[in-house]
């Protein structure tokens, strides 16, 4: 990474074990995506627990890559003692986004037999009920609100990863999608990753 990893413990006690697990997951991201500018991880209390009890952990991960919107994933543990599960769940969501983005940039997105492709939302016009998906090697693909078959058009954001199928014919806006599916956050494997030589030391702070 261009900048050292930043880990912030907010309203909770510093944990070496948690910081180490976060470092390991960030190292794995660096193996997946060639150029990560920086990563900031905030661990804190969810503030959802009853009074006079220790609230479960909440985690937010922000990853910055060149020329793309900030990649953000966050979640909260349902109860105490699930901090490792929470870390893996949040980082799995970030990892999936980086994997999809790497495929698009490298031009390795393959069309499946059923015609489904992958892309990134690059423009949105909510007041006009449409947007555009970036497709490697071709013009941006138009889609309308009614094309969003899984997920919500209103919740779409620039940089969101989507699957789509192309319409057989072009419309007045050019190439268009017949269906758009917002990618769900799915968990992946948890294989271990070694720290790369020369990796920057993380910055761990309290807030």
Automatic annotation (TrEMBL):
One Pfam match: Ribosomal_S30AE
Domain of life where this protein originates: Bacteria
One Gene Ontology molecular-function label: DNA binding
Keyword flag DNA-binding: yes
Family annotation (InterPro entries): NA-bd_OB-fold, RHF-like, RHF/RaiA
Keyword DNA-binding: yes
Record key words, sorted: DNA-binding
Signal peptide: none
Name used for this protein in its record: Cold-shock protein DNA-binding
């Amino acid at each position: 990474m261009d900048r050292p990893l930043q880990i912030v413990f907010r309203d909770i006690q510093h944990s070496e074990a948690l910081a180490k697990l976060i470092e390991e997951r960030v190292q794995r991201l660096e193996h997946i995506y060639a150029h990560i500018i920086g990563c900031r991880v905030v661990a804190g209390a969810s503030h959802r627990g009853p009074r006079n009890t220790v609230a479960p952990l909440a985690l937010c991960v922000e990853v910055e890559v060149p020329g793309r919107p900030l990649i953000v994933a966050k979640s909260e543990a349902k109860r105490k003692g699930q901090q490792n599960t929470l870390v893996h769940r949040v980082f799995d969501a970030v990892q999936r986004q980086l994997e999809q983005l790497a495929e698009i940039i490298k031009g390795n997105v393959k069309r499946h037999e059923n015609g489904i492709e992958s892309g990134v939302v690059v423009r949105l016009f909510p007041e006009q009920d449409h947007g555009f998906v970036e497709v490697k090697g071709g013009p941006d693909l138009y889609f309308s609100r009614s094309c969003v078959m899984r997920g919500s058009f209103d919740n779409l954001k620039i940089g969101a990863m989507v699957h789509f199928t192309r319409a057989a014919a072009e419309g007045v806006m050019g190439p268009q999608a017949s269906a758009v599916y917002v990618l769900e956050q799915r968990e992946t494997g948890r294989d271990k990753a070694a720290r790369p030589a020369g990796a920057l030391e993380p910055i761990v702070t309290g807030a």
